[in-house]
Design brief:
- This protein has eleven helices and nine strands.
- It is α+β, with helices and mostly antiparallel strands.
- Among the domains are: about 120 residues, Triger factor/SurA peptide-binding fold; about 90 residues, Chitinase A, domain 3.
- The strands form three sheets. The chain has a four-stranded antiparallel beta sheet. Strands 2-1-9 form a three-stranded antiparallel beta sheet.
- α2 packs across α3, α3 packs across α6 and α7 packs across α11.
- It is elongated.
């Protein structure tokens, strides 16, 4: 009898242990899925999950990787994170409008955009590896690009196509902002690059007696590069300071920048001048168009939000 009881107890313990192990594994592997599927916002009849937000962040990372690298890329992503849920909600509203208007996207446009992104990665394998690191596949990117094109089409139909800039607006802006259209002084100069101080000083000595850079550089087999710049931060400060201190036709002393020495010759000084309307009218048109576009888009999105049901469940 005691043996029977002991056997029953042992079997019960085994069952409890197995049940505990089974429960542990179920929770261990499904908890991340529950976290991913957690609803964080409702937009009319659509829901936005944590996975949607994570995928959106990863998609932005893939796109921004064509412009930023390493820490710079991650800093850019972190700076955007706070606004990404709001952006995702706005995107969902625009996509709902695209669906209402039965807008279709040609698949060739999606393929062309993917090809452009791949070019920035150097090869398809590098692109695929980058996607894998983000937990994405190419189909995810294609789906996001399709959404982007749908949103662009809706915005073009609802906003961009309705914006008009009259010639009088361009003229008025030009006349009211004449100070914005003054070109600063420009300086045209030549430079040569030398990799050691002794040779740089020797070349500088030759240039003091023979002002023609080409004669001296030919003698030492050095290349001459031509540049122009304004005093507005286009160049490194040490180069800009040198160029704007020397006089016309003057040769600068060698300037050490990192591991090289540079010698400059100032060839021409173009004085400041006021640009006429014909030179800047295209830029003014673009500026006014973009301003009206942004204002109209903001107003349209605000109207969409006012007549929609939006609930954020997690901030």
């Amino acid at each position: 009898m005691k043996k029977e009881k002991r056997k029953i107890i042992i079997q019960s313990l085994k069952f409890l242990i197995l049940n505990f192990i089974f429960t542990f594994y179920i929770l261990h592997f499904t908890f991340p899925c529950f976290a991913q599927d957690k609803i964080i916002a409702i937009v009319n009849k659509d829901i936005i999950t944590q996975k949607d937000l994570n995928d959106f962040i990863n998609f932005m990372r893939v796109q921004l990787a064509t412009e930023y690298k390493g820490e710079q890329l991650e800093t850019k992503i972190q700076s955007m994170k706070l606004d990404l849920l709001d952006k995702l909600i706005e995107d969902r509203l625009i996509l709902q409008e695209a669906k209402k208007n039965n807008i279709k996207i040609n698949p060739d446009r999606i393929k062309a955009r993917v090809s452009e992104i791949i070019k920035h990665y150097g090869s398809d394998s590098e692109f695929q590896n980058s996607l894998a690191k983000q937990g994405l596949v190419q189909a995810d990117i294609e789906a996001k690009i399709r959404e982007q094109l749908l949103m662009y089409s809706v915005i073009d139909m609802e906003i961009r196509s309705k914006i008009i800039i009259n010639p009088g607006e361009v003229t008025d802006f030009y006349q009211e902002n004449t100070e914005k259209f003054i070109l600063p002084e420009q300086r045209e100069f030549e430079s040569i690059t030398i990799d050691n101080e002794k040779l740089a000083n020797e070349v500088f000595g030759q240039l003091k007696s023979d002002q023609e850079l080409q004669n001296v550089t030919n003698r030492y087999s050095l290349a001459v590069n031509k540049f122009s710049c304004a005093k507005n931060g286009q160049l490194r400060k040490d180069i800009e300071d040198t160029i704007f201190k020397i006089n016309l036709a003057q040769i600068s002393t060698p300037v050490k920048i990192e591991n090289n020495y540079y010698i400059f010759k100032l060839n021409n000084i173009i004085p400041p001048r006021h640009q006429n309307l014909s030179e800047v009218q295209d830029d003014i048109y673009s500026m006014l168009f973009n301003k009206k576009m942004q204002e109209a888009l903001t107003k349209w999105l605000d109207e969409l939000k006012e007549r929609s049901y939006i609930k954020i469940l997690q901030t």
